Amino acid sequence: MTVPDATGPAGPRPTPLQAVHESLGAVMTGFAGWLMPLRYRSETAEHQAVRTAAGLFDLSHMGEIIVTGPGAADALDYALTGQPSGLQPGRARYTMICAEDGGILDDLIVYRLAGEEFLVVANAANTGVVAAALSERAAGSDARVTDRTADYALIAIQGPHAARILAGLTTAGLDDLRYYASARAAVAGRDVLLARTGYTGEDGFEIFTSPGDAEHVWTALSGAGQGDGLIPAGLAARDTLRLEAGMPLYGNELSRDVTPFEAGLGRVVKLGKPGGFVGRAALASRAETGPVNVLAGLAMDTRRVPRHGYPVLWDGSRCGTVTSGAPSPTLRMPIAMAYLEPEAAKLAAGAAETRLAVDIRGRAEPARLVELPFYHRAS
């Protein structure tokens, strides 16, 4: 994982679950200005629990920005690449906020909570940037932008047993809560916003609580999941889970230097929506000319692990750069995502034998081009 360090003079900011993490013996680390659990015992065990049973995550470092008012939908349409005005209340959508030149400022999830109320969830390191950009882009419209990060804690339960564990604790009808939908509900007797979203490639839920209720909700979920294999999981497992699922991380696959088209996410850019949006001209041009580089999946034929920034080679010449790499606990081999020159990616896709390699500390290690995502959960 590579993220900007936003730690202030007082040190990383603890989440409302700090005491819980300490009691569980978590290894803590500074992450985007927050003090977060990296792992509790074994990151591999935590990863495998999410794939086979369930994992419990503290995501309270994520940013929550509320946009309200009669002009909220139109303001978000103008600010973002997607079209939040098309969302029905209770639904959510993955989208991006870009600069005028098309570079990605952040990737986001937008929840429409009511007709004139939206929740924008930003990455921790980018919350200030996103809030400022939304405020600037909403100027002159009948919309109000408020950074409400301090009013929320965020807990995720992810994995094939997540729904079964949660069902006994919530008033929500989970069978009716579709993927990328949310509902006001109670969990363990506390009022929450419950969303069927996640960043692991598994079914699961994200629970927005007040900071004061976070420990109670976490403890209730932990207790309910004891017989179903639920264990707490940290940032390390979250990173390998999202890598297997081919999900981009800001600061690795996404940045100001790439557009959604390089990342293979052109689907989130709604060029035809009425009224235009910030970055439309640059993104329309990129859609016409094609991406400068393409995001690809690599599977290694050796046990050596490619890491962020390592050169990718085609016939011995550099053709790209690794953005994320790790041993895959599910596939039992090192995997990576990398940006490749389009011609090299085309040649690699059509080659009978691999001529791709990753330069790992001066040694060219053979790699194969594979389709993203690396992992698909059973339906």
The tally of beta strands, per DSSP, is 20
Q: Helix share of residues?
A: 10-25%
Count of alpha and pi helical runs: 9
What's the gyration radius in Å? 21 Å
Task: Describe the sheet with the most strands.
Answer: 6 strands, mixed
N-to-C series of helices and strands = EHEEHEEHEEEHEEHEEEHEHHEEEEHEE
Distance between the termini: 29 Å
Unreliable spans are: 1-7
* CATH architecture annotation name of the largest domain: 2-Layer Sandwich
Query: Which structural class matches the secondary elements?
Result: alpha+beta
User: What's the CATH topology name of the largest domain?
Assistant: Gyrase A, domain 2
How confident overall, as mean pLDDT? Answer: 96
So what's the CATH class of the largest domain? Alpha Beta
Description:
- It is a single chain.
- The protein has 379 residues and is an alpha+beta fold.
- It has 3 domains: 13-60 and 152-244, Gyrase A, domain 2, CATH 3.30.1360; 63-150, 2-Layer Sandwich (Alpha-Beta Plaits), CATH 3.30.70; 293-370, Elongation Factor Tu (Ef-tu), domain 3 (Beta Barrel), CATH 2.40.30.110.
- Helix content is 22%, strand content 32%.
- It has 9 helices and 20 strands.
- The protein has helices at residues 18-23, 43-52, 72-79, 127-138, 162-167, 214-224, 235-244, 280-289, 342-350; strands spanning 13-14, 27-31, 34-39, 54-58, 63-68, 92-98, 104-114, 117-122, 144-147, 153-158, 182-187, 190-195, 204-209, 230-232, 294-300, 311-314, 317-328, 333-340, 356-360, 363-370.
- Strands 11-12-13-10-4-14 form a 6-stranded mixed beta sheet, sandwiched between helices. Strands 15-18-17-16-19-20 form a 6-stranded antiparallel β-barrel. It has a 5-stranded antiparallel beta sheet with strand order 6-7-8-5-9, covered by helices on one side.
- A hairpin with a 2-residue loop joins β11 (182-187) and β12 (190-195).
- The model is unreliable at 1-7 (pLDDT under 50).
